[in-house]
Amino acid sequence: MLKLSCNRFVKDLERDDIYFDEKYFTQIVVFFSLLRHWQGKWAGTPIVLTPFQKFMIGGLMCFRWTDTKKRKIKSCYIQVARKNTKTILMSGLSLFHIMLDEEPAAEVFVGANNHDQAQICTNCCGKLCKSSPFLRELLRDKRLTLYAYKDNISKIVFQTKNKYGTIQSMSKQADTKDGFSPSLGIIDEYHEAQTDKLINVIESGQGARDEPMLFCITTAGFNKAGPCYSILRDQSIKQLREVISDESHYSLICEPDANDSWEDESTWKKANPMISDVDTILPYLTDRFTRAKNAGGTKEIDFKTKNLNQWTDAPETWLQDSVWMEGNGAPKNMGQKFFAGIDLAHVADMSALVFIGEEDDGGVMDIFTDVWIPGESILEKMKEDKNSQYVNWIKEGFLNHIEQRVTDDREIEERFFLRAKEMDVVSLGYDPKFASGFVSRLSERGVDCWEVPQSYAQMTEAIAFLEQKAIDGKLRHGGHPVLSWHCRNTILRRNRGGEMILDKSEAHRKIDCMVALTLAMKQYQTWKKEAEANVEIFFV
What we know:
Low-confidence stretches: none
Shape: elongated
Helix content: 40-55%
Number of strands: 20
Number of helices: 19
Structural class: alpha/beta
Largest sheet: 8 strands, mixed
Radius of gyration: 28 Å
């Protein structure tokens, strides 16, 4: 895709009806050279634009119509991997726009899927103002003013006798503002958008502008049904391939080709065009790749999506067996607090009760597992569930067989209290779907039971924490074969915002133990946060 953008640039240079404004291009490059990096190893040093950044600025900002002298490009779609300085480039262009562009009363509005994301760019603009000597001078004589709330810079105003301009992040109510008239609109991480409302809001406010600009800049994401992938990206690709014509739109998509190997460094270069010019990018990618290769699951998906700029909405395999089995040491009950999770069967499915202990001084967590399976014929169940180990697991005590069609949850209840006699059990997390009777009886017997719906909002943090513990080798589950089998069966689903749940859509993929484990982990995290909050209050 990047080659197609290069081809278009060359073709535009050869045209007579447009021209490349070299003076304007030089003005932008010089402006950036006066800015200073404000973080990392280059903090305090001048910003020197790389060849790729110059190419992007040139194609985006510097072609003009020969007859009117007006800027050719009014909108853009830029898709590039993380850590390729998208934010600092957009911030520098925003400052240039309000200070040196010919736009009267320039207004830059930065929008995103949430206000925190939108403020990243305005914060970066503010940091550049504070770190760059010539901008600090403007701050001192009040020609440049920063407006902040707590630690966030919400608005920047530039004002002289002949010039006025502002940069600010958009609120969710931007479409209701009187006088909303952005000369430059920037939408950051558009892949998270669920609708195209934000684009429509900005475009509708630009009607009075002679040379409006709208920049959509993003990494790849998970929502292929959203407006970023299905509309804007699709139209940008068609434009690059000359299927459709749109002279006012600029497209720059840096991503691997369909058959490229994600393990090949040459593939990384396609998504990271600054890899040869910024010496921190390759080590960063190498480290991320090693983690993704070793851990698989969400680490691999995250590397492919954010660092290789590849879109995905497919279910993702979670933990590789080699990673999970790092925790095959025997679990220990050393008097620590335990947290339980229960996944009860509807009719003839497995039921799982899992206990997880609080972290010890080394961060290790111990896991105890009990599993039940009903069914008059265990041979039929083995065939139905595609597992030939049931008989062995029953003999070895890893699987409790109930010789009736439906699991009697009173047996599970008694097992819970048998475990509770030996453990300091704080609470039990349960999915409310099939557990009402069971939970009522436990509550009557003094157990602190918490309903935990299997939603993205509820489960993401517990899943991510459990995954990291497994990767770090900080679990002791004894290699319990049923639990390990369920782990191998587990795949994840992500929503548009990247939040995760365990996927239960395939009935033959038994994951009951992992469901119970994540519910127990959710209980532990809730308890830990409350305990830490109480400690803070005590010291205050």
